[in-house]
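Input/output pair, single chain:
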Amino acid sequence: MLEVFRRFGSIQFDPLAVAGRNHDLVLHARVAGYDPAWCDLLYERREIFEAYNKGLSLVPASEFPWFRATLSQNAPRVLAENAEVAERVIQRITAEGPLSALDFERERGTTIDWFGVPMNTVRAVLEAYSVTGVLGLARRDGNRRYYDLLERLLPAHVLARGIPLREQLRHKLLSRYRAHGLLGIGGSDIFLGLGSAKPNPERPEHPGRTVLREELVSDGELVPVEVEEVRGKRFVLKEEVGLLEGPAEPPPSLAFLPPFDPLVWDRGLLGSLFQFDYVWELFVPRPSGVGVGTCCRCSSETASSAGSSRASTALEARCRCWAYGGRTASRRAAPRASSTRCETRSAPTCTSQARSVSSGHRTSQGRDDCFSRAPKSVTA
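Output:
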């Protein structure tokens, strides 16, 4: 199991469990016979740990030094603006051990959450300390988080290892390409937490994502490819180029994908490559006639969508998602008699969904079934 985490770089954590927790669904879609108890056991043993990489994620504990730095200016600001609360919080945790926000009197301040609602200042301080590497999550009771000093949670040799910011950012940048499999150079929130593409004058140790990506290409870690009818270059890992040269036909299968699955990070690619629009109704109104359900593979041959609230016709089969009280849905109809599988255990990234590759020149290929046969060709 640890090898799976290393292969992905990190797996985003989310405590909401509709059809399952996000990280469990990510693993279940790729690891045959996956049991959520496996991940829980790794967490209890501190072999995986929570760190920020695009969002709160599970990473191998041994790689924590590469995820420790943050470019966020919000966390230091929260601590500075609430210095008295921050001091009381850290003193009590130092003396008493793991505590949650509910172990403190509620404090009101200027901090608001991402819905614009005033946030408990104690909770904001606890989260800021975790982002800045002072505290870590000791355990969870349901969705309640208990924080403790980081030195009590991870081995001393792990915490003692200092990794320059540049190397940390390069490692995290590569982890995004590793998890998705066919990313380009941009995206709304794909590279969140890695700073701008250009150098940051205020952080001279950060050369910008463009320079870091070019270094990864120069070192052979990333290989540029072109996807037919998709604008811009894409990049695959050097060890996955073979998947493009001779992709194996995956057996028919069914798997649920959570809203934060790496495969659906690049919504533009989903639309242009697989004719699948991934829309969060939390921000975008639901298209008329589209049902509510859980993101999954749905087969138009069966004229229904697994987990959906109503049957669909063969030309109207759509994948549906639900998250944070909002809903996501596809607005595009799947081709007749196609199987719009979002993922297979034998092909865990977008790289392995591409079906043909040619060295040195583009190739053309007619559009076949949406996922059982990819509609594009890829040129390395």
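The domain at 74-159 is CATH 1.10.10 (Arc Repressor Mutant, subunit A). The CA atoms of residues 245 and 357 lie 5 Å apart.
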